[in-house]
Structure formats: C-alpha cells, structure tokens
Design a protein that fits this description.
This protein has 159 residues and is mainly α. It is 61% helix and 11% strand.
Length: 159
C-alpha cells in the first residue's frame, strides 16, 4: 500500500479508509462450507454467539448492543440463523418472554475453524505494526465508534 501525501484531500477521508479495510477483510475471510449460505453479517453474529455462549447466556439484546443494530435487524438475522440450523432459541425459566440464543451442533462443528481463521486474520492485520501503534489505533477506532454512537443518539432524540 502506498502512503498518501498529506496534501491529498482524500488523505483525511477516514470513513473511506475504514470502509475499504472492512471490505478487504470481508473478502479475505475464509469460512467453513456450512457457513457459505450465510451473509457476512450473519456470520459475524454467529461467531459472536459461539464465543460469548462459552462464557454466558446470549440474548437478542446482547447482539443488538454488540453490533449496534436495531431490534428488527437482529430479529431477522436470528430467524435466518435459526432457519439454517445454526441456533435455537430457548425460553428462560425466570421470564418466558425472554429467549436465550443457543448454538446448535452444526454451529459448534465450525467453532475451531472460526477461531483459527480469526487468529490468522488478526496476524495479517497487525503485521508490521508496533504494539504502541496498535494500541493507539484501537483507542482511536473506539473513540470514533463512540462519536458515531453519540451522533446516532442525538439524531434519534430529534425525531
């Protein structure tokens, strides 16, 4: 990749660069054959469910918060994951309206391959970047996400 001249107006286009890196990452992700019927977003949600369910129960609201998506979007993704046999929704004793999202045996069958793929992509992404620069990058990206979230909330409040 070439380094842009600071005088280049495109140099300051952070959103474009983030979008470009996101598309490159999506293209290079290797997925298990069973996952090929899923969209990239459905795959990311499935990955989240697989790994969070090792530590705690996962609910739709957790997915909405993690991916910053609306309830209707999360519901649609989960319905398709359920239809394709990757998750089931189970009632919770304390509240019959609340449904815990549980990965199926089909989803569990791809857990290790997913973890291996994530490690591989992280290694490629971090290649040649110092620990200090990586920490700065993560802090900046987290702040950008917070900025966008705050803006989204302000827009919602005006409606």
């Amino acid at each position: 990749m070439c380094v842009k001249d600071a005088r280049d107006p495109a140099h300051d286009d952070v959103g474009r660069l983030i979008n470009m890196v996101s598309h490159q990452l999506k293209r290079q992700m290797c997925f298990h054959r069973e996952e090929s019927e899923l969209t990239n977003m459905q795959k990311r949600v499935l990955h989240y469910i697989l790994f969070q369910s090792l530590k705690q129960d996962v609910y739709q609201r957790d997915i909405e918060k993690e991916f910053q998506i609306r309830r209707s979007t999360a519901s649609g993704i989960l319905q398709l994951l359920e239809k394709n046999g990757f998750v089931v929704r189970e009632s919770v004793e304390e509240d019959a309206r609340l449904k815990k999202i549980v990965p199926t045996e089909k989803a569990e069958g791809v857990r290790e391959e997913i973890l291996s793929n994530i490690r591989y992509m992280e290694k490629i992404l971090k290649q040649g970047i110092s620990g200090e620069d990586m920490k700065t990058c993560m802090n900046v990206l987290a702040q950008m996400s917070e900025n966008l979230l705050g803006n989204e909330k302000r827009i919602e409040e005006r409606r």
